[in-house]
From TrEMBL:
The gene is iolI. It comes from the Bacteria. Residues 21-255 form the Xylose isomerase-like TIM barrel domain. It comes from Acidiphilium multivorum (strain DSM 11245 / JCM 8867 / NBRC 100883 / AIU 301). Gene3D superfamilies: Divalent-metal-dependent TIM barrel enzymes (3.20.20.150). The keyword Isomerase applies. One of its GO terms (molecular function) is isomerase activity. It holds the Pfam family AP_endonuc_2. The keyword Isomerase applies. This is Putative inosose isomerase IolI. Keywords: Isomerase, Plasmid.
Amino acid sequence: MRFALNHIATPKLSLADFLGLARRLGMPAIEIRNDLPDVVGTMPAGAVRAAAVASGVDILSINALYPFNVWSGDVPARALALADYAQACGARALVMCPLNDGTPVPHGDLVAALRELVPILRQHGITGLVEPLGFPVSSLRTKREAIEAIREAGAGDVCKLVHDTFHHHLAGEREFFPEFTGLVHISGVRETDLAVNDMLDAHRALVDEMDRLNNIGQLRALATGGYAGAVSIEPFAPSVHDDPDPEAALRASFAHVAQGVA
């Protein structure tokens, strides 16, 4: 496994400063975003590519196309625009998240959306990373359903899974699919009195000895199954974003994780 850094870990940093942080931490790769911070909407793709190349850092993905499983409205146009941007900036993949507002999405619609995405992904030479969200309101909670849809859509050559340790825990999943996994997101939850169904993005902090999600166990299971890809930290907690010394906090968290899976 190799570590990477999602820009949501330090959303107050510019891309240049974020790349510098990744380099100092010894992170060989990053993920950029189109929400917070919105790199995609604020910087030309060529400038992003040039900055990454100059820093010697790979761009793993753009995070994210939402809601990818509802192929209507502006989703097709946004999918094409993000694929164009990914190709131009040198990103290897596009993270794709399902509708997450309590509205059910039929399995057939998920398959149909993937079928529409396949030619876009192929033409741009990028991977679609399907990320099931474990929240009770999510329209796609499990990796098993995602794999079934990828197979039915004939998308296995261009689509893989994101194994997010937070969403894996929320969904109550017991199965690991390392052979289908293209990226791992990690974050930790510390609150001891918080029910699983009440866990939200705002609770997702850095992984440390207080972690309730068993990140170390999940990573060991993936590694035992043969996963050797990137492990990217994706914390949304305000306490992480407001840390006056994010570099020290990230360094300590990565050291804890690395020691745990060694």
